[in-house]
Amino acid sequence: MIGHFGRGGSERQAFLLARELRRRRLNVEVWALTHSSEYAKEFEAAGIPTRALEFSIPIEGNSRVSRAIKWPRRLSSIARQLKRAEVDVLLPFTTWPNVVAGLTHRFAGVRVCIWGERHCGGERLPVHERIAVRMTRRFVANSSAGVEFLARELRVRRPRISLVPNGVEQPQGRAGSEWRMKLGLTASQPLVVKVANVNSRKGHATLLRAWRVLQENWTGAERPFLALAGLFLEDEVYAECMRLIRDGNLSSTVRFLGSVSGVSSLIEECDLAVLCSWTEGMPNGVLECMAAGKAVIASDLPGVRDALPPDAATLAPAGDFNAFAQLMLDLLRDPAERRRQGDANRLRVRDEFSIERMADRYLGVIRQEWDGSFFSDRPATARHEAQA
Fold first, then answer.
1. Range 274-297 average pLDDT
2. pLDDT tens digits for 77-101?
3. What average pLDDT does the chain have?
4. What are φ and ψ of residue 168, in 5° steps?
5. Does 73 fall in a domain?
6. What is the tens place of the pLDDT at every residue in 102-137?
């Protein structure tokens, strides 16, 4: 269960996990609380059935009486749909799905519900969150920061929490020069990429301030170019970014690309990846660039440190645009160091963050909650017939 079918890190993780479990011949669907979108077609194309529940998220500005009436009705609708579908295992990702699943799964007869902590408190629903936590037995976090958030902020006992890091696909060969041509770049012009949706947590303003410092101190013949891939989720954040680009005369060296299908081809062509978030669980934008063998500069956050190898972690304090600018200048001027870090990053992803390993860990947690019969050694088709 995800919040929506927009392109984002959590949605991508749901896609990868569901596809791997389907490959193992398990009966898996992905449901979104709210509307469907173009991204749902990629799930369907991979053989993953989808459903949009059209759950209307209560608005905090509404009266307390209105929320008190609408919440139970909406949750009852979700519980009925879960019950009709005879859902056995429910894996919600992110805050709203975690809360909705926690509040409904027992009434729907769901046998196993595992809370999926990914935002580390980036979004909170204090009252309903506390109730949902009490109604949930098992919890998974994708980073050490998520484990600490669950234990310290939500008061979950540590034996009930499992750490399951994200999985990432290995790139399928070297891409051509399509993106450089699209952006009007030469083969040797430095290209820096950031893969993150545009919202207040992802620090785009910090990066643009750093980019202005970088441009003012650049001495090379060809100026570096910054490509920003991700959905525009918060209009006010995007407006601030446009102001920074205008005030810093950066329009010739910065491009917002919006949602990018097949972002791996863009990553393959870049020289350096950057992520300057204020908060993160375990960021896909870092793992995907690591898998492509790219050096990564990122905010010094626990989830980022979980991802990067210690000897190739180039980190700056969140919000420190001068530090980010200096790190970008240093690495763009040092191709050998970029290659060294990129090679270390690629090996780290191969050894620690495969999709298969993520699926194994999830199944291990599910088995602990199940009696073992559903995941026995019988053929998958026979299991499904017996379950039906």
1. 92
2. 999 999 999 999 999 999 999 999 9
3. 89
4. -140, 145
5. yes
6. 999 999 999 999 999 988 766 777 788 999 999 999
Same domain, 212 and 303: yes
**Which regions of 30-178 does DSSP assign to beta strands (E)?**
30-32, 50-52, 89-90, 112-117, 138-141, 161-163
Contact 32, 7 (CB under 8 A): no
DSSP run (H or E) holding 358: helix 355-369
Is this prediction's pTM over 0.85?
no
Same domain, 110 and 232: no
> Which helix or strand (DSSP H or E) is residue 213 part of?
helix 204-217
DSSP collapsed to 3 states, 281-319:
CCCHHHHHHHHCCCCEEEECCHHHHHHCCHHHCEEECCC
Is pLDDT of 63 > 60?
no
Whether 172 is covered by a domain: the verdict is no
Which letter, b or e, does each residue of 155-169 get, where b requires 16 or more Cβ atoms within 10 Å of its Cβ?
ebeeeebbebbbbbe
- Using DSSP's 3-state secondary structure scheme, residue 105 falls into coil
Rounded Cα distance, 322 and 326, in Å: 6
| 171: nearest Cα among 80, 236, 263, 239 | 263
Helix (H) and strand (E) counts in the chain = 16, 12
Buried b / exposed e over 75-99, threshold 16 CB at 10 Å, is beebbebbeeeebebbbbbbbbbbb
pLDDT tens for each residue of 129-178: 999 999 999 999 999 999 999 999 999 999 999 999 999 988 765 555 68
Domain count, the chain: 2
- Could you tell me the residue range of the domain that residue 282 belongs to? 178-352
